[in-house]
Every structure is written in structure tokens, then in C-alpha cells.
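Hey, can you fold this one?
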Amino acid sequence: MIQITSQMRVLVAIEPVDGRKGIDSLVRLCQEALAEDPFSGCVFVFRSRSGTAIRFLSYDGQGYWLAQKRLSQGRFVWWPTCEGVAQTLEAYEGQLLLAAGDVSRIRAAPMWRRVNGVK
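Sure. Predicted structure:
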């Protein structure tokens, strides 16, 4: 099982992919189309053309995990639309996407960042 922790980077591919693609094809897609390192530990998220399934790909240091969620009814409500080939999500947004939630409607507290001048 892929567990998305707050330290993980989640990258969502904008364009849908063929649902028959396996690990090797998705890894190649990460390298070529997304220009990302598939060994980085990042969680890559892909959507099927029909919008009824998403796939999560991640490398854990020993091998790849590939998880798929296919909805029994309906489609995934939210999917990013931006200029680039991928969009980075916060970890909680990745978890919400995995639960077929609408990422655009939920906002959490901002991530902690050091305030300049305070030690």
C-alpha cells in the first residue's frame, strides 16, 4: 500500500494515460514527459482517459509500488488544469484525491515556514 506522508512530494500528471500502462511504462512517462526522477520517492498520480480511475506510482528504495483506485460509480470530481505537464500537491491533497474528494474545496492550515529574523 502506498502511504502518503507529509514529507512526500505528490505530483499529478495533467494529461490522462492509457489504463493498460504498467510500472515500466509509467516510469518512462515520469522521465520523458514529466522530466522527473522516478527514483526520487515522489508519488506520481495518473488519471485514466475515462476519469473513473487513478494510479499512484512511487519508489520506496527497494522497488516500485503501483496502486490503482477505480470508482464503481461516477468520475473523479477534481483534476488539475494548468499550463504545464504536472502539478504538485500537498500531501493532504494527495490523500484527499485518493479518497475521490474534491481537492479544490478543501484548504488546510499553511505549511510551517521559518520566519526571518527569529531563531
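The chain has a mean pLDDT of 87. Let me know if you want another pass with a different chain boundary.
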